[in-house]
Amino acid sequence: MNSTNVHRILIPVDFSPAGECAVDYGASLANGCRADIVLLHAMGALHEYPHAWFINSNAANDKELLQSIVNQKLGDYAENITKKYGVFVKSIMTNGKPSAKISEAVVEHDIDMIVMGTHGASGLEEFFVGSTAHKVVNLSPCPVITVREGYKSSVIKSIVLPIDETLHSRQKVSNILPIATKCNAEVHLVGLMNSSDKSDIAKFNIKMSTVEEMIHKAGLKCVRKIVKGTNIAMEAMKYAEEVNADLLSIMTDHESNMTGIFMGAFARQIVNHSKTPVLSIKPMVSYEASA
């Protein structure tokens, strides 16, 4: 994907607190981008749903009852989104593994972006994450925004755009600019370096200036800063919190020369721990890179 012109947003719904945050965030983004929304719920086993849903019913084990309840709740979501944000909403209830159904929906409904909740991870989960969000971030052909449980704001007014020394890093710009433009968001251009060599710094500043010029040409306000550290993932998250950013953009599947901090480890660390919503983008693989 060369750029993110958002016309249709997929929001997977699991009725969790993190999922609720993602619904509100995704609805606000759809409003800013004048996009449609597709709500998707993949049915699970009865025991996976709140017991309170069945208190007033004698049919707690009735699959049809559960489907009726889920369908009603999806309808309520759609109605509330339309009333609050004025966007078109389509609701889908399906059966199967959520990650697989999400991938199918992206193709079937021509989805430009996914917005979904995530619970984060720690310890062994840091390297063996089996969550739906992690699978979707890794496999999705379109950009994915993950929103942590407890995130309050739904308005995108400040975006952190980290740039490192790799070739792939600048690809984030073409994905961020359409979103920033439609939301009239301020872009924080953050240069992430681990080199103190004067020649490297000079080349990096040229790269930063090129990106900054692209942001200004789009008519957006740009704040520029260079950050150094041994763990640039932590530096990026720290900066996003300091400026109270509404979105932090990363690439998902390339390795940099920075001791492997970029994806795998960089993107995984940020998706798992960032309090700021994270936009994960797959880098385009050029012919030269693959040759």
Describe the structure in your own words.
The structure is a single chain. This protein is an alpha/beta fold and 291 residues long. It has helices spanning 17-33, 63-85, 98-108, 132-139, 171-183, 198-217, 232-242, 261-273, 287-290, and strands at 8-12, 36-43, 89-95, 113-118, 144-148, 158-163, 186-193, 222-228, 247-251, 278-281. The protein has a ten-stranded mixed sheet with strand order 3-2-1-4-5-10-9-6-7-8, with helices on both faces. Helix 3 runs parallel beside helix 4 and helix 7 runs parallel beside helix 8. The relative contact order is 0.15. Mean pLDDT is 82; it is low at 121-130, 254-263 and 286-291.
Summarize it.
This protein has nine helices and ten strands. The chain has 291 residues and is of the alpha/beta class.
Quickly give the CATH architecture of the largest domain.
3-Layer(aba) Sandwich
List unreliable stretches of 5+ residues.
121-130, 254-263, 286-291
Q: What's the overall geometry?
A: elongated
Q: What percent strand?
A: 15-25%
- Describe the largest sheet: 10 strands, mixed
The value of Rg in angstroms is 20 Å
CATH superfamily of the largest domain: HUPs
Strands ordered across the widest β-sheet: 3-2-1-4-5-10-9-6-7-8
Estimated helix fraction: 40-55%
N-C termini distance: 20 Å
Please provide the ordered H/E string of secondary-structure elements.
EHEHEHEHEEHEHEHEHEH
